[in-house]
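Narrative of accomplishments. A recurring question from our advisory board has been how the design workflow behaves on a single, concrete structure rather than in aggregate. To address it, we present the structure tokens for one chain from the evaluation set, followed by the sequence designed for it. No filtering or post-editing was applied between the two.
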């Protein structure tokens, strides 16, 4: 006996296939795939948006687009970046992680600058 199985319209495999990538380039579509752990990592983005939805969007409603934009800005700059600790960053907040990284990188001397002028 054969059972019918429903499949999602787009399976994960085609997203990384050569033919799919070529077709996207032909259509001038930029893929959202990146390497693991960088800002283009879909898992990191999905985690952020899940947190945004759960902690802000899902807890209320907004009367205007302006009100929503302000709330999202305050969420990101008032809590998410300065206070929320991330396992991918060694349980540091993004701001603390960037400060620690900046302190570990030696300053560049002016003669090594790549800026013109």
């Amino acid at each position: 006996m054969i059972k019918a199985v429903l499949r999602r319209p787009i399976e994960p495999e085609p997203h990384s296939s050569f033919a799919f990538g070529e077709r996207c380039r032909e259509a001038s579509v930029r893929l959202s795939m990146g390497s693991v752990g960088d800002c283009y990592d879909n898992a990191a983005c999905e985690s952020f948006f899940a947190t945004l939805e759960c902690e802000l969007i899902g807890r209320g409603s907004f009367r205007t687009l302006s009100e929503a934009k302000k709330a999202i800005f305050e969420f990101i700059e008032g809590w998410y970046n300065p206070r929320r600790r991330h396992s991918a960053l060694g349980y540091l907040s993004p701001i603390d992680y960037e400060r620690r990284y900046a302190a570990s990188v030696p300053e560049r001397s002016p003669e090594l600058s790549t800026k013109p002028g």
